[in-house]
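Hi, here's the filled form for the chain we discussed.

Project: internal
Contact: R.S.
Residues: 385
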Amino acid sequence: MDYITDITQIPYFHSLEKREQDQLLHVTSQYPFRASKHYLSLINWNNPTDPLKRIIFPDTGECNSYGSQDPSREEQYTVLPGLQHKYPQTALLLLSDVCGGICRFCFRKRLFMDCPRQTVRDYSDALNYVREHHEISNILLSGGDPLILSTPRLKKIIHEIRGIEHIRIIRIGTKMLAYNPYRITDDQELCDLITAASTAEKKIYIMAHFNHPREISPQSITAIDLLQRAGAVVVNQTPVIEGVNTDPAVMADLLRKLSFIGVSPYYVFQCRPTVGNEVFTVPVERSYQIMQSAFERCSGLAKRARFIISHSTGKIEVVGQNKHNVFLRYHQAADSRDYQKFMISQSNPEARWFDDYLPITHIDSPFHELLYDSDPGIESRTATL
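And the returned structure, exactly as it came back:
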């Protein structure tokens, strides 16, 4: 599968005015472009607002002064180069800085902005750390995209991980099912690896990244089926992205289509306020409303996803909203004491991140006494269960 890294090779680029061409080239000088020919073939180039084009093709708004290179402060939880350990049970191993395509709303832009990209990282010290920390039962292979690695290379890594007794789950975070499903359909050795490594008691999970229902091509469905038959559990996560899945009908279609092919909707994220991402983010409360409206159109199997803000302190789930307040809780927490917190904030329709609701203070009242729509005077605060 060929990849294109130069937008001037795309015919659509030459249909634009010279001024816009220059602006887009300036964008790609900061945030590189990369796409597979398969994915580019799914785009309706005659539609200026095509959602798949928005996912992969540069936007002049990316140069707006907005955001942080590391909004979730991953650096704070990086214990060794390429290894993050934020939650006791889970370690995140960055195997590569390269993807099958570069999402324009990527939250790890820092990996490829100002340094040469690495196809393979040295992971030996990281695995030694995992061996020494028996509380870790899950390891997430991420990057970049782990499936950009050759199957023999991936086989070596997974074989080493499977040799660590306390690792029960290996997760592979990948958008290759959307960007380049031929990576799976044309490689029987990869499916054989999944079969060997996904046992009855120690599963391989594929953390897919479908953002729009049109990304689920016939080739993607075939690839998913092969992985499932090989023994992998396939789930999906996506951010809410302006112009891609902010129509509740589109979000519902995505969730429903995933459930039809046996892929469990896992997380729907608030788009992170990463540098260059302003044009892709939507306010938190609008994101929540999109999810609730989408859920009305779905069966139970299609609405298992949780709406999450992946904050530096943990995964914060938005669990409710009324006319005056937003209700949140920790789904995962870097500090175990945060699991006891139920958070209530005054509504802020402009808030695009958890920090926009701060400060939040502690109170002693049981949270169920505060869930009434008739009290507009509830201040931002946290109830301790």
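Let me know if anything looks off before we file it.
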